[in-house]
Amino acid sequence: AQKITQTQPGMFVQEKEAVTLDCTYDTSDQSYGLFWYKQPSSGEMIFLIYQGSYDEQNATEGRYSLNFQKARKSANLVISASQLGDSAMYFCAMRPLTGNQFYFGTGTSLTVIP
Amino acid sequence: DAMVIQNPRYQVTQFGKPVTLSCSQTLNHNVMYWYQQKSSQAPKLLFHYYDKDFNNEADTPDNFQSRRPNTSFCFLDIRSPGLGDAAMYLCATSRDRSDTDTQYFGPGTRLTVL
User: Fold this and answer.
1) Of A43, A44, A104, which has the smallest distance from its Cβ to B42's Cβ?
2) Which residue of A has its CA nearest to B39?
3) Rounded to whole angstroms, how far apart are CA atoms B55 and B53?
4) pLDDT for res A101
5) 10-residue block means of pLDDT along chain B (114 residues)?
6) Is B84 helix (H, G, I), strand (E, B) or coil?
7) Side-chain-facing half-sphere of A21: CA atoms under 13 Å
8) Which residue in A62, A90, A92, A93 is a FRET match for A6, CA 20 to 30 A apart?
9) A104 Cβ under 8 Å from any chain B Cβ
């Protein structure tokens, strides 16, 4: 079975601080992709970062980095130097090699405090 | 800029009155998806097209239909909207269906059913 778990329904972070959003996954596929999306209140799902299961290095995109621990089946998103505009819902997703769809977690609502 | 476009951004319909939501893409991607997202929930896949090949999810109600007349456009038809169909509808595309293919989302259409 394919499953994504995000255990933090809501998180708060002070502006300019770093924050880690947790994501664990379960899959029997050997090859899979892990994705993080940001969804502001406007509703659009914005792609942030991708990590392949065979990538040895953690992915980074600007202020976003993915802390990938394959043995623990975790793919945590780290946002450095938080900004007010980072306040949004964040979804972790997995795409296994087999099957056609993305599997989404339930999301984490991040609030950045001035 | 290449992108995924959804029209309209907001749609109000009456109970039982058919409605069509539109999605277009300039990415020239093979795959187009339709998701339903209710408040504070993860997106739920309704169906997707791989080129002209339609793939319905097992639990998608018959009330929901889709058309893809060409590579660029995809439509979501709700034949008889009920109050429970009020949601955000997200269109997404991906180049292919492998584990490395990112999904790119449009801004969504927020549907209200009166």
Assistant:
1) A104
2) A43
3) 7
4) 81
5) 89 96 96 94 94 93 96 97 97 91 94 96
6) helix
7) 33
8) A62
9) yes
Q: Which residue of A has its CA nearest to B100?
A: A33
Which pLDDT score, from 0 to 100, does residue B2 have?
65
Q: What is the pLDDT of residue B97?
A: 86
Low-confidence ranges of chain A (pLDDT < 50): none
Q: Is B98 on the interface with A (CB under 8 A)?
A: yes
Q: In a 10 Å sphere around its CB, with 0-12 CB exposed, 13-18 middle and 19+ buried, how is residue B75 labelled?
A: middle
CB B53 within 8 Å of CB B40:
no
Inter-chain touch B100–A52, beta carbons under 8 Å: yes
SS3 category, A53:
coil
